[in-house]
Structures are given as structure tokens and as C-alpha cells.
């Protein structure tokens, strides 16, 4: 019997992008939906849209009684499951699932799910481009772009859902079943949420949990931890490596040697789906990268500015630093999540780098790095951009690779990246004005 919520009371917790999409989907499927959020009001026209659709709103906090009396609870990825508000609901036996799990139960097409500590968005986007170039009907979304719940109406047996999935989304899955599951890499991240590397890895490994011998697991041959996590899976395995090009390296127009692995992962997926090499090459040649992922911003008087605001953990920042040969000034900092800043010592020192530190993590950065490379505190991103320009002149690079979350100063990494680009533009305008 197919999954149904008709006539049920469903509580959706968290009114971010995926929570709103889940609430609207549930109403369409006949549920009585209450959407709760800690915010006192929702942004823009969202609140009116939800009310018109018939969604009841509980704003200003989550009510345990609402959750305990629901038939089903759907949580947004940003909501930790260990909060006390879920205690009564658990005691009453109310099922608690995530938005990805909910949407997947109603999809008609095949799922290609992509996870990993870094490179998810690049690989997901490029995989979608390869499928499109190969003449396949592909919908890209999940943790980026369009939530999976918003794809259900357009799902057909011929549709491929290319889905980026995070550890937060995977930990709330039960029946989620990708035809192709991709694990790109694994390094320390989100330990403030998961508590340990073991728990983090187990959350990622859930991407393989419901696969069968008819499915495929695409694994990074250069990452021992991903190989270990995939060992218990039942799917057929395909290994990829940055050292074994599946498309010509000359076709890749991305900054950063580590991004080659993401391209090869996408090519491995496309190969499983029967997409020809020519289509893969066209997709790669036309792809110059994503916003906030080693994104070239501007050059001012010989100084290059690069926005890698998506580098929210230390391993990602290390990879970004290693993409440059020398004379680089790195803007680090924000809200510390986990890891060891000392891992950045060698790549920074070998490149003659300097650091501009911002946000709550500034004291940690100074403690870990000041004995190895110059560390210059800045009170905000505007000051960091200007200080970075001074240090990188006349022909260096200013790289925003924070190695931290953004929440001490910004709504998310995207806002941080946009502010960085705005401040670079302001700096260029100021210098032009002075020359007049």
C-alpha cells in the first residue's frame, strides 16, 4: 500500500525552504498541516502563501503538545532531533522523519543522491548538467536549489532526481532509496551537531542503507573513510579518483585541483546512466563553477579576490588554500564548528601566506596560527577585505575561505559570500574615486 497522509494531522517543524515545501506538499496530499517555527513572523509573502494553502502556523516557538498529538512529524534539516520538545511525541510513538524522506516516498523517478563533507553542490550541479547534455530529464535540488518536496508533482518514471543530501537530512531517513548513491569524501565537520566523527560518518552512511544489488554506490577511491563506510552496502560499487580522468583535464575550467575529484564523480554517475563521453565533456567545458565555491570575484590593481564562503570547515579551507601557489592572504573565521586550525599551518607557511581573522573564532585562529604566519584581526568583513588587499598587494590573492560557520555575523554562508563581493566592489570604487 502506498504512503498516504490523507486526513492525518502532520506537524512540520522549521519554516526554512524545505519545511515550507514539505508543508505545501502535505496539504496537497490531504493532510491537516501545522507548520511551527521559532521566528515570530516569516519573511516576505511566505506567511500569506502558507495560510492561503490551508497551513496552520505556530510562530514564536514550537509547542510540544502540537507535536505529541500529531500523526506524523516532519523536521527541517536545521532542527536537531535531541531537543526536549520531541520527548512527548516520541513517548507517544509519533513517527519523526525529514523532508527528504517524506518527498522520496512519493517520487516516481530514480534518485541520484550525492553527499560528502565537501564538493556536494559542485558535483550535484555538474551531474545535472551531464544528464541534461545527455538528453535525460533531470531535476536538480535537495540541499541546494529546489527542495525535493517541490519536485514531487513533476516526477515521472523517466525523471532523474539529482539530489544533494546533507548529514542532517540523511539522519532522518528511513526508506530513502537512491538508485545511485555518491559519497565524495569524509572529514571532520558538524561535530557540534553530531557529537563525534563516528556519528557523523554513520549519518552519511545512511545514503547506502536501503540500496539493493541492483543499485550503484559511487565511492572515492582516494578516501579510505568513504571506502570503509560503503563496505556494508549491498549496491554495486564504482570507484572514482582524481588521478584517473574520465573526461579530459583540459576541459575543466575550475580553480582548485581538488575539484577534479568532483568532476570525476559526476562523470562516474553519468557513465552508469549510459551518458556518452561527448555529453560529459560539453557539460564540463560549459561549467565555470558555483557561486561561493572558489568563485573569482574581481581583480583590483593586480590583486585577485576569490570567494570560497562555502568552505565552512577546516578541511575545505585547506583544500582552497592549496589551490594557490603562493602570495595568498586568507580570510578565516566565523563561528567555530569543529576541527583543528593547526592543520592549516603547513599549507599557509609553504605559501608565504598571511591570515586576516574575523568573528568569534578569532582567538582560536590566533592561538593556532600566529606563531607560524602573520594573523591580523578584523572587526568585520569590510575591514578584512581592505586589510587583505593591503597585505596581498601588488600581485597576490585575497581568499575568503572561513573554515567556520557564518552564524555569528551572517544568516548563512551565501550572505557572507555576497557581503564579501559587495565589499570588494566598494573597495574598487573607492580606489577609482581617489584616482580622479
CATH architecture of the largest domain: 3-Layer(aba) Sandwich
Alpha plus pi helix count: 17
Quaternary structure type: single chain
Overall tally of structural domains? 3
For the biggest sheet, the summary is: 6 strands, parallel
State the CATH topology of the largest domain.
UDP-N-acetylmuramoyl-L-alanine:D-glutamate ligase
For the record, the CATH class of the largest domain is Alpha Beta
Sheet/helix structural class: alpha/beta
Please tally the β strands and state the result.
Answer: 17
The shape, in one word, is globular
β-strand amount: 15-25%
Output the strand order for the largest sheet: 7-8-6-9-10-11
Give me the Rg, rounded: 23 Å
Poorly predicted runs are none
CATH superfamily of the largest domain: Mur-like, catalytic domain
| Helical coverage, percent range | 25-40%
Determine the N-to-C terminus distance.
74 Å
User: What is the mean predicted local confidence, pLDDT?
Assistant: 93
General description of the model:
This protein has 436 residues and is an alpha/beta fold. The chain has three domains: 9-94, Rossmann fold (3-Layer(aba) Sandwich); 101-285, Mur-like, catalytic domain (UDP-N-acetylmuramoyl-L-alanine:D-glutamate ligase), CATH 3.40.1190; 295-435, Mur ligase, C-terminal domain (Protein-Tyrosine Phosphatase, Chain A), CATH 3.90.190. 35% of the residues lie in helices and 19% in strands. It has 17 helices and 17 strands. The strands form three sheets. Strands 7-8-6-9-10-11 form a six-stranded parallel beta sheet, sandwiched between helices. Strands 12-13-17-14-15-16 form a six-stranded mixed beta sheet, sandwiched between helices. The chain has a five-stranded parallel beta sheet with strand order 3-2-1-4-5. The termini are far apart. 50% of the residues are buried.
Amino acid at each position: 500500500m502506498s504512503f498516504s497522509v490523507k486526513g492525518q494531522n502532520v506537524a512540520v517543524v522549521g519554516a526554512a525552504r524545505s519545511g515550507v515545501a514539505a508543508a505545501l506538499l502535505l496539504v496537497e496530499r490531504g493532510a491537516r498541516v501545522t507548520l511551527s517555527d521559532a521566528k515570530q513572523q516569516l519573511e516576505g509573502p511566505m506567511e500569506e502563501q502558507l495560510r492561503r494553502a490551508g497551513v496552520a502556523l505556530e510562530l514564536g516557538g514550537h509547542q510540544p503538545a502540537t507535536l505529541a498529538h500529531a500523526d506524523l512529524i516532519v523536521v527541517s534539516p536545521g532542527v536537531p532531533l535531541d531537543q526536549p520538545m520531541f520527548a512527548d511525541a516520541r513517548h507517544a510513538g509519533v513517527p519523526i522523519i525529514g523532508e527528504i524522506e517524506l518527498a522520496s516516498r512519493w517520487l516516481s523517478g530514480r534518485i541520484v543522491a550525492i553527499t560528502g563533507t565537501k564538493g556536494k553542490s559542485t558535483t550535484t550541479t555538474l551531474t545535472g548538467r551531464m544528464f541534461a547534455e545527455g538528453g535525460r530529464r533531470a531535476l536538480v535540488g535537495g540541499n541546494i536549489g529546489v527542495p525535493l518536496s517541490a519536485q514531487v508533482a513533476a516526477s515521472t518514471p523517466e525523471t532523474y532526481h539529482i539530489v544533494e543530501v546533507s548529514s542532517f537530512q540523511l539522519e532522518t531517513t528511513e526508506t530513502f532509496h537512491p538508485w545511485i548513491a555518491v559519497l565524495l569524501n569524509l572529514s571532520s565537520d558538524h561535530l557540534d551537531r553530531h557529537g563525534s566523527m563516528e556519528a557523523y560518518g554513520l549519518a552519511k552512511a545512511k545514503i547506502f542503507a536501503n540500496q539493493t544489488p541492483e543499485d550503484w554506490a559511487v565511492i572515492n577511491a582516494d578516501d579510505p573513510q568513504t571506502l570503509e563506510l560503503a563496505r556494508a552496502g549491498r549496491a554495486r560499487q564504482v570507484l572514482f579518483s582524481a588521478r584517473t580522468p574520465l573526461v579530459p583535464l583540459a576541459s575543466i575550467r575550475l580553480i582548485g585541483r581538488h575539484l577534479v575529484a568532483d568532476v570525476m564523480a559526476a562523470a562516474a554517475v553519468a557513465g552508469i546512466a549510459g551518458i556518452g563521453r561527448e555529453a560529459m565533456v560539453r557539460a564540463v567545458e560549459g561549467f565555470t563553477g558555483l557561486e561561493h565555491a572558489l568563485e573569482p570575484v574581481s581583480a583590483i590593481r593586480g590583486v585577485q579576490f576569490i570567494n570560497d564562503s562555502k568552505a565552512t570547515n577546516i578541511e575545505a579551507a585547506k583544500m582552497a588554500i592549496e589551490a594557490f601557489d603562493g602570495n595568498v592572504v586568507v580570510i578565516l573565521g566565523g563561528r567555530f564548528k569543529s576541527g583543528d586550525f593547526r592543520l592549516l599551518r603547513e599549507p599557509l607557511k609553504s605559501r608565504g601566506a598571511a591570515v586576516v581573522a574575523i568573528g568569534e573564532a578569532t582567538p582560536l585562529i590566533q592561538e593556532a596560527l600566529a606563531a607560524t604566519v602573520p594573523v591580523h584581526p578584523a572587526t568585520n568583513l569590510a575591514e578584512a577585505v581592505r586589510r587583505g588587499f593591503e597585505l596581498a598587494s601588488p600581485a597576490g590573492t585575497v581568499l575568503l575561505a572561513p573554515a567556520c560557520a557564518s552564524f555569528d555575523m551572517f544568516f548563512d554562508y551565501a550572505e557572507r559570500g555576497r557581503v564579501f563581493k559587495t565589499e570588494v566592489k566598494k573597495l574598487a570604487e573607492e580606489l577609482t574615486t581617489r584616482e580622479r
